Amino acid sequence: MDISSFQRRTTWQARELHERVAPDRWCVTLSDLKFLKSSVESSIDSGAIKPPADGSDVFSSEDRLYGPSIYTVTEQHIKPVTALAGKMSWALMRNPNGLDCDLFISHAWQEGIFEFMSKVVHSWPRFMRHAWCCMLANPQHLDIAAMLQSPRHSPFAIALQASKVVLAVPNRHCSIYTRLWCAYEAYLAEEQDKIILIARASNRYNICQSMVKMASAAMVGVLLGWVVNFGHATVTFNLVFLCIATAAAAWSM
Prior knowledge:
By secondary structure, the protein is an alpha/beta fold. The chain has helices spanning 11-20, 30-46, 70-85, 90-94, 113-123, 134-137, 144-147, 155-162, 180-191, 204-230, 235-252, and strands spanning 28-29, 103-106, 130-133, 165-168, 195-198. Helix 5 (113-123) links the parallel strand 2 (103-106) and strand 3 (130-133). The chain crosses the membrane at residues 234-251.
């Protein structure tokens, strides 16, 4: 949680910062997200982020596939860090002058932080420099409710209008459109003819694993073919080889 490189502000200064910087500029970079992922990992390892006592988010400290939910990360990491910095949003803590909004990230908060990161990082559109993401853009310690009194003029709507692309991040728990704000964001995106992309994690590992299995099965097939053709195998051996080949093919699927 080292924030020594960021200027500490008072709550009044944080409020003034959010009034001075337009809501659509409360953005982060891809590097910011990677920094957040690393910070969360360190906080989990140190015990600063742990499963809530009420049992609302059960996760293993060893889990780097899904991890704690966005709700947990916000309560146990983002809020403490930004409180020390002066209670501005995490985005303006990192980029106090704001950044132009290229990408709007829509997500439901139920997803694990590593699930979210893997999908967003892998699906970040080329040539998009900055992204608006509510958990990082909105000042968690200030009066967010006051900012949302008029949905059409909320930070969400202003940022989405300024963006070029909307990136919807699905999760393993439920459709993100069971969350009212996500449904409203989808409505605005459609109304404004935004490009809408669905985020997904990289499947490179699964592809490589499948290729290894297929190569292994092919090698078994070549070897068995050589034995059958040149080894003068008996009918019994042929049946054994056929069973082995079938098992190898099934394993490669």
